[in-house]
């Protein structure tokens, strides 16, 4: 083997030095690019501002996730994921669950399914409704499913496609309810659903598709179910320009009675007009079984407490006073006082916001009477197993 000449050694040495220099240069360029990218990202983030970042998250006013207080004296918060298959797209949804103190197999509690509106998630809705303190005092377990941005960019529950995605989401929510009911001491005959806006419409859709599973339903500022089959129709339905399809609702009920319903709506709502609430009430009245007693309106009541917004309360009950879902008189557990199966609460001056909600949250009006307390009072005297 021949020895390398001096020039060969020189080229070899220069080649190694060049390689080392190239690697150092590459690292320097890479570091510079990454540093510039980070700086640009931070600058873009600042330029985007809070509103743009919130738009990307689909949440108008994000809130910190609710947490269990030390010792759990105020109840326990949990977070979970439930659905079919894998991923967060159209198959799974996150949820938050609140369990008040003292719930056990010996002391089960009713379950409230609380559905947020568009531009919200479970954490922001929990903050807006003050659900933990109210549910703790009333002793309700609360399940708060969360719509994903993969399913809907604005986090809207898809009530406006009742036979396709809406039906699939309703089935997913029902499966989630079953999952929670198996894990915790839930009173099976005291499961209720309530929602705001799109969540309110989805709560009513749940009640019509699974009427035997819900003791009562509440909708706050929601459009009438079965009033739209696509997004374009949904916009018109929210303006009160479309009538609910009673035939489609009857098919969903399959001969069963709809659960008792309470509707809360602001009479100055520019997003989902008050006509939507009267349309939902008209649908429920039309869905009364033909062999049952006709609905009987009760005297309208106007109520105002302190400086809170005034409300008008419209009630309907079956002739003879028996509410839908109530046991016949004389049977164990039956109520001795007649209660309405349908209630419409008109909140004067309220726009598209949760009545009595926390300040600083989007879609929340602190000046109104507390919507959650109104609904829980209705739930407590209506439906199967009501006290």
UniProtKB/TrEMBL annotation:
Biased composition (Polar residues): 329-338
GO cellular component, one term: extracellular region
Source species, domain of life: Bacteria
Keywords from the UniProt entry: Hydrolase, Signal
One of the record's GO molecular function terms: hydrolase activity
InterPro entries, A to Z: AB_hydrolase_fold, Esterase_phb, Plant_Biomass_Hydrol_Est
Region (Disordered): 319-338
Name by which UniProt lists this protein: Poly(3-hydroxybutyrate) depolymerase
Organism annotation: Cupriavidus plantarum
């Amino acid at each position: 083997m021949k020895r390398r000449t001096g020039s060969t050694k020189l080229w070899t040495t220069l080649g190694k030095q060049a390689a080392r220099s190239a690697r150092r240069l590459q690292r320097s360029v890479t570091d510079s690019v990454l540093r510039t990218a980070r700086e640009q990202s931070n600058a873009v983030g600042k330029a985007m501002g809070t509103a743009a970042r919130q738009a990307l998250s689909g949440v108008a006013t994000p809130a910190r996730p609710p947490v269990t207080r030390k010792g759990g004296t105020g109840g326990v918060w949990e977070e979970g994921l439930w659905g079919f298959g894998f991923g967060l797209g159209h198959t799974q949804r996150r949820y938050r669950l609140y369990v008040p103190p003292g719930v056990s197999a010996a002391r089960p509690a009713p379950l409230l399914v609380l559905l947020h509106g568009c531009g919200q998630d479970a954490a922001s809705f929990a903050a807006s409704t003050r659900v933990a303190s109210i549910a703790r005092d009333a002793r309700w377990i609360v399940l708060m499913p969360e719509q994903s941005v993969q399913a809907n960019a604005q986090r809207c529950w898809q009530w406006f496609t009742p036979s396709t995605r809406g039906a699939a989401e309703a089935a997913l929510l029902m499966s989630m309810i079953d999952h929670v009911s198996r894990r915790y001491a839930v009173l099976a005959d005291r499961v209720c659903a309530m929602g705001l806006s799109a969540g309110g419409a989805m709560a009513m859709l749940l009640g019509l598709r699974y009427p035997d599973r819900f003791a009562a339903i509440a909708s706050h500022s929601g459009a009438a179910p079965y009033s739209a089959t696509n997004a374009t129709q949904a916009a018109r339905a929210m303006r009160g320009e479309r009538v609910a399809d009673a035939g489609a609702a009857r098919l969903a009920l399959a001969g069963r009675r709809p659960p008792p319903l309470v509707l809360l709506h602001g009479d100055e709502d520019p997003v989902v007009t008050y006509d939507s609430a009267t349309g939902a009430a008209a649908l429920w009245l039309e869905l009364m079984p033909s062999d049952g007693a006709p609905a009987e309106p009760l005297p309208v009541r106007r109520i105002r407490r302190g400086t809170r917004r005034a409300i008008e309360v419209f009630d309907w009950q079956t002739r003879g006073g028996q509410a839908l879902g109530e046991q016949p008189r004389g049977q164990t557990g039956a109520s001795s006082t007649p209660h309405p199966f349908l209630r419409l609460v008109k909140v004067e001056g309220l726009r598209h916001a949760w009545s009595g909600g926390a300040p600083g949250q989007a879609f929340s009006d602190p000046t109104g009477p507390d919507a959650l307390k109104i609904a829980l009072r209705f739930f407590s005297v209506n439906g199967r197993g009501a006290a």
